[in-house]
Amino acid sequence: MIDVIKGTLLIVGALLMLLAAIGLLRLPDLLTRMHATTKAAALGVILVMLANAMHFSEVGVVARSLAVIVFILLTAPVAAHVIGRAGYFVGSKLWSGTVKDELRPNYDPLTHALKSGLETEENAKRQPRETDPE
Amino acid sequence: MDTVILISQVIMSLALVLAFVRVVRGPSLPDRVVALELFSTTVVGLVGVYAIQSGVANFLDAAIVIALMGFLAAIGFARFLERGGPRDD
C-alpha cells in the first residue's frame, strides 16, 4: 500500500517538473514563463520529498524532508519576485497579447522613480500635521 | 518500485533537456536565469529520487545544499541585472 502511495507521489512530482519545463519552453514571455516554473516545480519537489519521508520513515529523514519543503516554499516566491523585478527593470518585452501593464504609465525606467498620481504643488509643500495617521 | 523510480528519472531527465533548450535559446538573460533555476529545482528532485533508489538518506543534505545554491545564484543574477552589469544577450 505504501509503495503505491510512494510511486504515485514520485510519478506525479516528476510529471509536474516536466510540466514546468514544457511551460518554460512554450510560453511567450518572461513573466508567463516564471508563472509556469515556480509553482509547478516547487510542487514537484514537495511531492518527491514527501515520497522520501514515507520511504525512510525515520525521524531524522522526515525532518530533513520537511526542511527541504519549507526551504523551497520560502525561497521560490522570493527568487521569482526578484527575477521578475530585474526583468522589468532591464526592459524585457511583454507578450503582444498583454492586456494591462499598470506600471508603465507611472514608472520611469531611467531614474527608477515611481509616481503615485498625487504629485501636486500643494502636496510638495505640505508639512506633517498632528492629525496625520502614523 | 524500481520501474517507478526509473520512469520518474526518465521524466525528470526530459524536463532537464527541455529547460536546457530554453537556456540555449534565450532570448534574454532573465529567461536564462529562470531556466537555470528550474534546472536546480529539477536536480533537487533527481537527488531525492536517487536517495530512495540507493537507500542512503544522507543525499537529502546534498539536496538542501543544491536548493540553497540555486536560490543564491538567482538572487545574485537579479542584483547583477538591476545594477546594470555588462550583458550579451
Automatic annotation (TrEMBL), chain A:
Stretches with biased composition (Basic and acidic residues): 122-134
Magnesium as UniProt keyword: no
Pfam families given in the database record: PhaG_MnhG_YufB (PF03334)
Superkingdom, taxonomy of origin: Bacteria
Transmembrane segments: 6-25, 37-56, 62-83
UniProt entry keywords in alphabetical sequence: Membrane, Transmembrane, Transmembrane helix
Region (Disordered): 113-134
InterPro entries: PhaG_MnhG_YufB (IPR005133)
NCBIfam families assigned: CPA3_mnhG_phaG, PRK12674.1-2
Classification via PANTHER family: ANTIPORTER SUBUNIT MNHG2-RELATED
Protein name in the entry: Monovalent cation/H(+) antiporter subunit G
TrEMBL record, chain B:
Localisation per UniProt entry: Cell membrane
Annotated keywords: Antiport, Cell membrane, Ion transport, Membrane, Transmembrane, Transmembrane helix, Transport
Predominant cellular place of this UniProt entry's protein: membrane
Pfam family, one: MrpF_PhaF
InterPro entries xrefs: MrpF/PhaF-like (IPR007208)
Keyword Transport: yes
Origin superkingdom: Bacteria
Transmembrane regions listed in the UniProt entry: 6-24, 33-53, 59-81
Membrane topology field: Multi-pass membrane protein
Recorded family membership: Belongs to the CPA3 antiporters (TC 2.A.63) subunit F family.
PANTHER family attached to this UniProt entry: NA(+)/H(+) ANTIPORTER SUBUNIT F1, NA(+)_H(+) ANTIPORTER SUBUNIT F
Record-given protein name: Cation:proton antiporter
Organism listed in the record: Halomonas dongshanensis
